[in-house]
C-alpha cells in the first residue's frame, strides 16, 4: 500500500479552504474567512498534522514519510490552493 499524504488548507474553524487567498492567507473571496492553517493526513497510518506554516508542515511530512520505509512508493500529494 502506498502512503499518500494530502495537504489541505483550512479556515480557523477547521473547515476546508478551497478559496483563492492572498499570500498572507487573507481572504480574497466573499465566502472565505481566510486561510488559517494547513492540515495533512497520511493514507497509510491515518496520522494527521496541523501547522500554520506550509514549509514546516512539508518538513514534518517528509520526516513522516521517511518512517514508512517499507513503502517505497510513498509520495506526497498536495491539494493546497495557493494564489498564483
Ligand atoms: Zn477560504
Ligand atoms: Zn503515515
Strand order of the largest sheet: 3-2-1-4
Helix content: 10-25%
**How far apart are the first and last residues' alpha carbons, in Å?**
33 Å
Number of helices: 1
Strand content: 25-35%
- Average pLDDT reading: 83
Shape call? elongated
What kind of sheet is the major sheet?
4 strands, mixed
Alpha-carbon Rg, integer: 14 Å
Give the SSE order as H and E letters. Answer: EEEHE
How many separate structural domains? 1
In this entry the ligands are: zinc ion
**What's the total number of strands?**
4
| Low-pLDDT regions | none
Determine the structural class based on helices, strands and strand pairing. Answer: alpha+beta
Describe the structure.
- With 84 residues, the chain is of the alpha+beta class.
- The protein has one domain.
- Helices cover 17% and strands 25% of the residues.
- It has 1 helix and 4 strands.
- The protein has one helix spanning 54-67; strands at residues 4-10, 37-42, 48-51, 75-78.
- The mean pLDDT is 83.
- It binds zinc ion (2 copies).
- One zinc ion binds at residues 3, 42, 44-45, 47, 64, 68.
Provide the descriptors you would attach to this structure in a database record:
single chain; 84 residues; alpha+beta; 4-stranded mixed β-sheet; 4 strands; 25% strand; binds zinc ion
Amino acid at each position: 500500500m502506498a502512503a499518500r499524504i494530502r495537504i489541505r488548507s483550512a479556515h480557523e474553524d477547521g473547515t476546508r479552504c478551497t478559496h483563492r487567498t492572498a499570500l498572507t492567507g487573507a481572504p480574497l473571496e466573499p465566502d472565505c474567512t481566510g486561510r488559517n492553517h494547513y492540515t495533512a493526513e497520511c493514507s497509510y497510518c491515518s496520522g494527521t498534522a496541523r501547522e500554520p506554516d506550509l514549509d514546516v508542515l512539508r518538513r514534518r511530512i517528509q520526516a513522516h514519510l521517511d518512517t514508512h520505509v517499507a513503502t517505497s512508493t510513498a509520495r506526497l500529494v498536495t491539494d493546497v490552493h495557493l494564489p498564483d
